[in-house]
Amino acid sequence: MQDDVTRDIRNAFFAELARVGYGRLSIDAVAKRAGVGKAAVYRRWRSKLDVTVALISELAMAAIDVPDTGNLVADVRQYLEDGRAVLSHPLARTIIPDMLAEAARNPELAAVLAEHVREPRRAKAAELFERALSRGELPPGTDITLAMDLLAGPLYWRQSVMQVQADDAYCDQLATAIVAALSPSASLQRGRRGNVREPR
User: Fold this and answer.
1) Which residue pairs from 32-41 have beta carbons closer than 8 angstroms and sit at least 24 positions apart in sequence?
2) Which residue positions in the chain have pLDDT lower than 70?
3) pTM, 2 dp
4) What pLDDT score was predicted for residue 74?
5) What count of other Cβ atoms lies within 10 Å of the Cβ of residue 170?
6) Are 90 and 28 found together in one domain?
7) In this predicted model, what pLDDT tens digit does every residue of 38-61 receive, in sequence order?
8) pLDDT number for residue 184
9) pLDDT at 200
10) Read out DSSP for the chain?
11) Residue 165 CB: number of other CB atoms within 10 A?
12) Is 73 a domain residue?
């Protein structure tokens, strides 16, 4: 029963967040949608900020998968495909831009999202490039921070800002371009060791 209540609150929270945005989100509305009293929410989380950070960080970490195909281009290509699926979800398309906009206005929210969502996700995804370094696919001294920006930025811009779907051909081309930008020699390995489709 306890798990069912937590699940109902979680579902209600995301539905309300997508409907009204963080700024207008209220615990009252979440509790009403979940069919519980406010006390049930406050027994689990102390405030709107706490519930937001807890549930979004939980979802963000569950959604990230760091593939290990043994080849950097194939790893990047799979990561992009997984990211595309997350960004294509109707709730994500509404919630992510709203949270970023709200964080720009709310320093407290921005700080906790950075600590509990952004940095853990980046650290997890960095494993993809660290493995490539250990395999010799990237040169020593490769800037992992820059690599992470290249991995995340174009896909988010295309799907969440431009609202244009990233198709398979785009993901193929982007994966090759990211690896080539980090190490031109690494991209030459994909024909021998990877199984990435040729860009159309």
Assistant:
1) 34/5, 34/8, 34/9, 35/8, 36/5, 36/8, 36/9, 40/5, 40/9, 41/9
2) 1-2, 184-200
3) 0.76
4) 95
5) 19
6) no
7) 999 999 999 999 999 999 988 887
8) 59
9) 43
10) -HHHHHHHHHHHHHHHHHHH-TTT--HHHHHHHHTS-HHHHHTT-SSHHHHHHHHHHHHHHHH------SSHHHHHHHHHHHHHHHHHSHHHHHHHHHHHHHHHH-HHHHHHHIIIIIHHHHHHHHHHHHHHHHHTSS-TT--HHHHHHHHHHHHHIIIIIS-----HHHHHHHHHHHHHHH-HHHHTTHHHH--PPPP-
11) 11
12) yes
Is residue 79 domain-resident? yes
Q: Which domain holds residue 16?
A: 2-44
pLDDT score for 185: 54
- Asked if the structure places residue 85 within a domain, the reply is yes
Pairwise CA distance, residues 63 & 48, whole Å: 22
Q: Per the structure, how many domains does the chain have?
A: 2
